[in-house]
Every structure is written in structure tokens, then in C-alpha cells.
Amino acid sequence: MKGLFISLLFLLVPKVCFSQSASIDRKVYLDSTWSETTSENYKYYRIVKDYYSEKDLYVINDYYKSGVLQMEGTSKTKDGNSKEGEFTFYYENGYKKAVTHYVKSSPNGKCAEWYENGNKKLEGEYIEDEKTFFGTLKVVQFWNSKNEQTVIDGNGDYEEVSEFFFASGKVKEGYKDGLWQGSDQKMGYTFSENYENQKLISGVSVDSDKVSRNYKVVEIRPVPKKGYEDFYKHVSKKFKIPNMPKGVGGKIFLKFIVDKEGQIINPEIIKGIGYGADEEALRVVSSYTNFAPGEIRGIKVRCTFSLPIAIQPME
Predict the structure, then answer these.
(1) Which CATH number fits domain 223-311: 3.10.620, 3.90.1570, 3.30.1150, 3.30.465?
(2) TonB C-terminal domain: which residues (predicted)?
(3) Which CATH class is domain 14-175?
(4) 69-122, pLDDT tens digit by residue?
(5) Could you tell me which residues come within 8 angstroms of residue 233 by beta carbon, excluding any fewer than 6 positions away?
(6) Which one of 22, 40, 171, 192 is at 20 to 30 Å from 296 when CA atoms are compared?
(7) Of 250, 293, 304, the residue nearest 82 (C-alpha)
């Protein structure tokens, strides 16, 4: 008799879709948000090595439109959304941008960063934290854009800078300490936070409508209100295994979004097994309506998850 097994691992993943390719490797055109687009409107493209082979790890290479390598690493799933192992990122001028180690799609372990001119920027380590999206960064050494080392052996002035985000403050023994202030232009908010003994004591964010929100955790993952066990039981109980030929089974990989209201929307099959099982997986997951939404600095956000469901073949 067939059985249903649900992997207990949820992975936060970027929203990326994939196009068809006739070659053994798969090429995907991506826009500036890393979503699938056409060959006429892409900014990046991705090559998945040996896409049509069954492997434990798939080699994933992303490229700028110019053909310069942007990222190289490995993924447990052939869509590239389950990072595992060391990833190296590059600027379009060819200089190395960052080296980060991933475990279960989250940064974990030693990391390093460089500026676009090749100067060293950061030496640090990501510490696993189940409550956050990306773990906690422990800063060991840091150089500012003027090539001045402002953090030495975990102590000094540190800046977090990306295309839309900026924050600055002090670190002590590698962790944020005292007053930190910053802004996120993409999400449209400013914030002020106080840290003590390696922990966030309090924070307040102010959005573009001047609405302020107090928080004590920077990032909160979406979670089932009654716990993950309730969600797993729901899928196991409601999943009606269709009639399939003897010996047919395998894993169904799907992804979905938990929106700002905690609803599951846009479920999509990444890899299916056919025979009606894929459609049933979409139906069952969509029918669960008891998630608490994710938050960043007190602001509710949409998050994308992937979920494998394993169908045991009939003997």
C-alpha cells in the first residue's frame, strides 16, 4: 500500500521560475528580481548542469547578461532553490564579491566579502538561528569603502550596505552593540535598534506613512499558528493518493507563498510525478489556512517556501 511522507524541512527561497530547454543542461532567463522572463528582457541567466539527471547536488551557475559569471554553487534541488555548500559571488567586472557557506539554504559558517575594486571588506561567520531567515552574522574583521579597517578582532564600527539597505553602529566581540540606525529603501522604512549582550533589546521602525512599529526580533519566519506538526498532519490526512501503476512513486517538490495575511497563495509544482498526485499536492497545501505571516522589523512580509512530499510506491 502506498504511503505518504512529508519532509519536515521548510526552506526560504527566492522567487524564481524556470523555462524549458532541450539540452542536458538547462538555461533560464531571469529579470532584475530573479523571476523568469523572456530572452528579450533578461538581466541574468542561469545554467543548471545535468538538469535531467537525478543527483544529490546540482551545479548552479548564474551569469550577468554580458556572460560574466555572477554566482556558482550547488543545490539539493535542480531548480537551484535549495543552496547547500560553498557559494561564490562575483561583480560584473570579474572581481570576487563574496564567499558564503550554506546549510539548508541558509548562510552557515565562515564568510568573506570584497568591494568592487577588489579590496577586502569583511571576514565573519554566520551563526545558525532558527528564528531568523539568514542566521546571525558574527563580524571578525571589517574594512570600510576607504580601505580603513574599522573592526579589528570583532570590535569597532561596522556598516551594513547593499543596493537598497544601509545600517551602521558598533560591534563588540563580533556582535552588534549599543545603538544601531538604518533604512531600507526597497521596503520604505527607517529604524533604530538597541543591542546589549549580543541581543536585540528593542527596536522601532517607521514606514513611509509615518506608522511606527515596536519589535524585539528583527526577522520572524511565517509559521503555522498551531505548529508545524499541525500542518504536516493536515497534509497527511487530507492527501488522497490517486491510483498509480505499481512501482510508481517519488518526491513531489512544490513551492508556495505565505502572504502578509498568512494565507498560502500561488502554489506551484517544481518537480512532479504525474498521475494526478501533483494536482492533489497543490489542492491539499492550498487548503491550509492557519499560518502566521512573516515579519521584518515589525512589518509583515510575503515569504516563499518549498516543500517536498514523498509518495511511497506500491509494492
Answers:
(1) 3.30.1150
(2) 246-309
(3) alpha beta
(4) 999 999 988 877 789 999 999 999 999 999 999 998 889 999 999 999 999 999
(5) none
(6) 171
(7) 304
